[in-house]
């Protein structure tokens, strides 16, 4: 590996020649502030917060994009550098909507943090305030242009990572704004509601729609039986909202907190994930054996489904007809559970705690109403649940470990791994392998479909039958995979696609980490490790061995793929126009 010798603040270093000054400084534990920078996503040197002085250079340079070279002498704290950073930050603040105390990102805002670190105790510049309308028409995402600092992180992740490209910079100079095409709302463009734009925003310009008020109202209604279900990815991330290390498993504390909030029952979405595998595995085998439409593509990720409806409608027949696990669970709660408990389904209020903002959009789909009511009434993100816990004054870290409630609280390791990319595929293979062979296997881990690579491929032999599988995470990778299938370059039997890079553990509703953490720590990998540790800790690790699922089939559905199962647990999807009734303004 080729190295170069440089000096930063008088410290002599030997670093790799393809590094930037920012990377070299970090390696030497020298902090350079950033604002627009996000490694591998937004490296454009736009905000100028990371400027440094280079001996011999005529002007200050942006450390995030300036490459190191032999003999470079760099100064990160010279008077010129310090003054330039302060002036830049004050100019950004001069027309920023500074309602920090009521901002969703208060105390987790990179602009706020920088202001403290650079000792900004007065503003020398009074800029003209922007006053633009809030875009709050989407069921998932709210845009506040008045808080936007034009860092373009959201633009980069939407265009370069997700390849959706529904937001971009418009106008020039002071009038510059990040907006949708034709000034439309996010609700009226082919946004997938994945929320990756929220995750990378350094301020409060993007946030999820806050539905906590609806849940508080339901909890206070004595006429309602309010139940809650939690996705697997929530338990390995919510601890971050309470200062715990990334990847902490806090399943028991999360259950206890939900009970303290007043939910009548705290259930585990993983139970429905096991149910999903029974239906989806049966669907896969039926299509392979009977010449059905292949590949079968998983339908668990609502962001991916919406992306498919807008961009690849020719693949709609390939989608599994299974509802996503939390919607399937909502349907079960308002049919099987309602009958079992004698509760009127109209009085059952189902709350889903999800790592995903797209689930909010999914919950309002008219197709998802098995009992004549919405399967799921409200979706809250991991962040929203944390807000409720804090609002209730619950000391999360001191809680005892609670247990999910019966009868819908028992899940297997297969249900847990839905939270990581490749998890749905692996869970299905664990069950399909034993159905096809008629044997029980001790080996339940399919390493070929694990990991955070954008696209993974594997051919797995199951009872003499070869299953050609592919896993894609992130919509940009989904696009590459689907294009290769369309072009005839690849053939598969089973495909898993998750909208978010890394899968649900990196969903748009998960705790937000600043660039200083996100750029150098792989959140996806750390949270996924916790998912797999939870899987390994469970006694039962195959969906078809879940006794609750077995009981549901025995007493209610009959068998996987039955008429009743299709009526309650399956759905359909529709082609969507990208810009309906498009008009130029």
Description of the structure:
With about 575 residues, the protein is of the alpha/beta class. The protein has three domains: about 5-75, Roll (Ubiquitin-like (UB roll)); about 95-210, Alpha-Beta Plaits (2-Layer Sandwich), CATH 3.30.70.20; about 210-570, Rossmann fold (3-Layer(aba) Sandwich), CATH 3.40.50.1780. About 35% of the residues lie in helices and about 15% in strands. It is globular and about 80 Å long. Its EC number is 1.6.5.3.
Unreliable spans are none
Using DSSP, what is the number of strands?
A: 17
Helix % is: 25-40%
Mean pLDDT level:
95
Oligomeric form of this entry? single chain
Placed side by side, the strands forming the largest sheet appear as: 2-1-5-3-4
Alpha-carbon Rg, integer: 25 Å
Number of domains: 3
CATH topology of the largest domain: Rossmann fold
Coarse structural class: alpha/beta
| Sheet with the most strands, sense and barrel status | 5 strands, mixed
């Amino acid at each position: 590996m080729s190295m170069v010798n440089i000096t930063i603040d008088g410290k002599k270093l030997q670093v790799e020649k393809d590094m930037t000054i920012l990377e070299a400084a970090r390696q030497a534990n020298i902090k350079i502030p950033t604002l627009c920078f996000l490694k591998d996503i937004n490296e454009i040197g736009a905000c100028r917060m990371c400027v440094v002085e280079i001996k011999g250079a005529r002007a200050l340079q942006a450390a995030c994009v300036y490459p190191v070279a032999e003999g470079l002498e760099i100064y990160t704290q010279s008077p010129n550098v310090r003054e330039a950073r302060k002036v830049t930050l004050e100019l950004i603040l001069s027309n920023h909507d500074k309602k920090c105390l009521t901002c969703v990102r208060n105390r987790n805002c990179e602009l706020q943090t920088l202001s403290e670190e650079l000792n900004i105790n007065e503003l020398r510049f009074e800029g003209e305030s922007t006053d633009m309308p809030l875009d709050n028409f989407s069921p998932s995402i709210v845009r506040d242009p008045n808080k936007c600092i034009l860092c373009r992180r959201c633009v980069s992740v939407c265009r370069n990572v997700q390849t959706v490209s529904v937001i971009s910079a418009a106008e020039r100079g002071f009038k510059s704004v990040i907006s949708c095409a034709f000034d439309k709302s996010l609700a009226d463009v082919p946004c997938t509601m994945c929320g990756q734009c929220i995750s990378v925003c350094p301020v409060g310009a993007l946030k999820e729609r806050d539905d906590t008020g609806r849940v508080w109202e339901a909890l206070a209604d004595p006429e309602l039986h309010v139940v809650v279900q939690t996705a697997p990815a929530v338990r390995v991330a919510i601890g971050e909202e309470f200062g715990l290390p990334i990847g902490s498993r806090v399943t028991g504390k999360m259950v206890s907190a939900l009970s303290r909030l007043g939910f009548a029952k705290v259930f585990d979405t993983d139970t429905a994930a096991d149910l999903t595998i029974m239906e989806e595995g049966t669907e896969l085998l039926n299509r392979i054996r009977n010449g059905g439409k292949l590949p079968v593509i998983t339908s668990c990720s609502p962001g991916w489904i919406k992306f498919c409806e807008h961009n690849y409608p020719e693949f709609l027949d390939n989608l599994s007809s299974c509802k996503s696990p939390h919607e399937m669970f909502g349907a079960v709660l308002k049919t099987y559970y309602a009958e079992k408990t004698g509760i009127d389904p109209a009085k059952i209020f189902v709350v889903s705690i999800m790592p995903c903002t797209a689930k909010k959009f999914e919950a309002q789909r008219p197709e998802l109403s098995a009992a004549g009511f919405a399967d799921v009434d409200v979706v809250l993100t991991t962040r929203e649940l944390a807000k409720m816990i804090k609002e209730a004054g619950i000391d999360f870290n001191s809680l005892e470990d609670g247990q999910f409630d019966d009868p819908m609280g028992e899940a297997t390791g297969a249900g847990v791994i839905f939270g990581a990319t490749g998890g749905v595929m692996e869970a299905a293979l664990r069950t399909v392998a034993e159905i096809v062979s008629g044997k029980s296997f001790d080996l339940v881990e399919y390493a070929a479909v694990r990991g955070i690579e954008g696209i993974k491929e594997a051919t797995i032999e199951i009872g003499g039958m070869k299953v050609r599988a592919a896993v894609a995470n992130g919509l940009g990778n989904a696009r590459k995979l689907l294009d290769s299938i369309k072009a005839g370059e690849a053939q598969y039997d089973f495909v898993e696609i998750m909208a978010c890079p890394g899968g649900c553990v990196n969903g748009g509703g998960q705790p937000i980490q600043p660039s200083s953490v996100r750029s150098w720590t792989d959140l996806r990998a750390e949270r996924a490790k916790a998912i797999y540790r939870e899987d390994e800790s469970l006694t039962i690790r195959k969906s078809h061995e879940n006794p609750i699922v077995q009981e549901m089939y025995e007493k209610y559905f009959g068998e996987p793929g039955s008429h009743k199962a299709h009526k309650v647990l399956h759905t359909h999807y529709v082609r969507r126009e990208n810009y309906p009734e498009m008009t130029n303004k």
